[in-house]
Structure formats: structure tokens, C-alpha cells
Amino acid sequence: AAARYFKKLYLDTPSNENKYAYITALKSNGQTDQAIDLINEILKKFPKNLMLNITKSEILLSSQRLNEAQKNIEAVLNIAPRNYPASIIKSKILSAKKETINAEEILRDLLISKNRDPSLWMQLSEVQRAGKNIVGYHISRGEYYTLIGDFDNALNQFQFALSLSGNSFQTSETIMTKIKFVKERLAKRRGF
Prior knowledge:
Helix content: over 70%
Number of strands: 0
Low-confidence stretches: none
Strand content: under 5%
Distance between the termini: 53 Å
Mean pLDDT: 96
Structural class: mainly alpha
Radius of gyration: 21 Å
């Protein structure tokens, strides 16, 4: 329904904005080939537009054209290194290609400046789960739950991570610090 609506809007009032809305609707509808054809038309006019190129990479990712998506997003990152949306897309592409260590590295780099972003922690946890980094998965989930204020689930995740951390002193100490922080927040919330 959305694709029909935006197609009509674009045909009745042709503009780049309406075409972009139509492209987005096509992507959401799974009509990626058509979306790529249309975005390529706009990119002929605006070849260096970051938003359009990032969107093209997202569409290519959606259609599982992973090598093309990676090539396109790397071109964006050559123009704008460390661009946040482009880095997120590159991480998703690498994860889809089962290059989870590289995907995790990109997300960890983003977390240096955006460590209060719960969605970033959630995405990192998904990449870690796919890469079988189970301790990292539970730590990242714990961070996510901490940031959204769900301290019970955060405590649960950190305790799972601690039980799996084995003999790694540094990891255990880091997790214990997080557990202490969450327990303090829970005590405050409960009025203790």
C-alpha cells in the first residue's frame, strides 16, 4: 500500500524527494531491484550524496548483494571516514558476510564516542551472538538493559556473563563492577 501511495505521489508530483520516498517504500516492500534502478537515477544527478549512497547500500544489503553493498559503503567511508550511519551499515554488511570480528570492531569503535546509545549495544550483542562471543553478547545485552533502565534484566545478563567468563581476571573484574553498579541502581529504585 505504501509503495502504491508513494508511486502515485511521485508520478503526480515528480521531485527527488518524492522519488526518494517511493524508493524507501519499495525497499520496505522488498522490491529491491526496482528501488536500486530508481536510486541509481537520482545518483546520476547527485553522485556524491552520502544519504543516497548509504540508502543504496542498505537496499543492496536487503537484496543480499553483499559485495556490491560493501563496495558502495566503502566508497562513502572514503569520502566521510567514521560517518556514523555508513559505519552502522558497513557493520551490518560484514555481519551478513559472517565477518563478525570485523563487524564487532566497527561497532566497538563507534561505542568509543556513543557508548550511551542503547541501539548500538543491542546491535553489538547481535553481532557477538552470531560470532559466538557469548560472554560479549551477555555484557552488551547488560549494557543495553542498563541504558534503558531495566536493571533486573541487566543484572541477569551480567551474571550470565560472569558465570561464563572463566578464569579471565580482567573480564571478571569488569563484569563485577557492572554488577555492583546495577545492584546500586536497583537498591536506589527500591528505596534501600
